[in-house]
Amino acid sequence: MVTKNLVLVSCAALVLSIAAAQAGPCNTGKSAQDAGSGPTPGHTGQTIGSATSTNPEHPPTSTMNRTTGDIAASSQDAQKQMQGQPNFDNIDELLALGVASVALGDPARAGAALEHLKQAAATLPDRDAKEIAQIMAAQLEGMTRLGRGDQAGALAALARAAQLEARRPKPIARPYPVKPAGELYAEILLGTNDPAGAIVQFNAALARTPRRAASLLGLARAASAAGQAKLAASTAREFLSVWKNADKDRPELAEARQLAQ
Fold it and tell me: ∠33-36-37 over CA atoms, to 5°?
């Protein structure tokens, strides 16, 4: 049950990160800017395949749904459904589809998305996009392994993703991948009862994207779980400073206030 809940929460957060980045910054009059928001320098929006579609539903997903009634019997079946159909706009959507499929208990579709990401990592002509696809493939592999209950394999894959990310230059604005690999690895370490390891990874993530809200709150949680009350409080106060203009009813604010005491 703990692993299942961890998968659901982590996948939901990851998909929301991707969706927010795809939509762009949203100004509702109550700005809650996160460190790393804004345009992505060097983002290529690499397309995998050249077909386009006016279907408002995600093209490959809608095709797969019509073909199978939302059910794919195997990863091979899911891949066959994708072949020859309008393909994904970019690698962000592959990652989003994969992690959403893990959360929905659809390993066949998650596996098919992972295979497409691996193909992108091997074949994209742009070096920058290829490196990012490699990181995303490792992230999705980690989440699919976690969904299967393979905790050791999941942590190994997520550690590999964080290592690949650490070799890249620090982002200038929004991080890319849009869910930093080090941050995701830290969140899973914390969720698998390794707060000390999570602290190390959250600190590494913050070194790449200073004052990023998700990493600050994660570090505060990890420090609290590790019994480091002073670190938890100071980090929670920094999070509250970053989110000073956020909507007042956000649950993260209430949690951070509790940690800051």
Answer: 50
